[in-house]
Amino acid sequence: MPELLLTLRFVLAGLLYAFLAGVIYLIWQDLRAHTRDDSAPFQPATLITEAGALPRQIIGLRPVTAIGRSSDNHVMIDDPFASANHAIVVWREERWWIEDLDSHNGTYVNGEPVAKPRQLVSGDRIGIGETILRFERDYGHSVPA
To answer: Model confidence over 5-44: pLDDT tens digits?
Structure first.
């Protein structure tokens, strides 16, 4: 009887280690797939200030660009209706997306509220408080005025 229990313990331990090895392998494969997807170079894009307290500026986007009133953002907006950390523009899945960061007054694209991540296309107007930023993808030529 003790030999049978010892054998069952070894079998269960082996099954547990095999299960853990399978889970680790699947996680590793998933991480490799995401690394390949995210390694694609991002398409340059800009934000152009059109209205608000900022003078007209052309701001080049990073793969993750934070927008808000706080000085730790990539794009700092001096707008009393903007939150400290208002929104982010992100390069993901070979597209540009905007996400509202649960700001108090919301983020708008072409007058519509951004409730979930939303894809951006050239010419979209992003409203943050009284500030309007126009999104433009750079296709190898100058940004239109």
So the answer is: 889 999 999 999 999 988 898 888 888 776 655 555 778 9
Helix H or strand E encompassing 99: strand 95-100
DSSP for residue 4: H
Instruction: State the CB neighbour count (10 A cutoff) for residue 61.
Output: 23
What are the Cα distances from residue 124, in Å, to 16, 27, 107, 127?
53, 37, 13, 10
Q: Are strands 75-76 and 64-68 parallel, antiparallel or unpaired?
A: parallel
What phi and psi values does residue 144 have, to the nearest 5 degrees? -65, 150
Say what the pTM is.
0.68
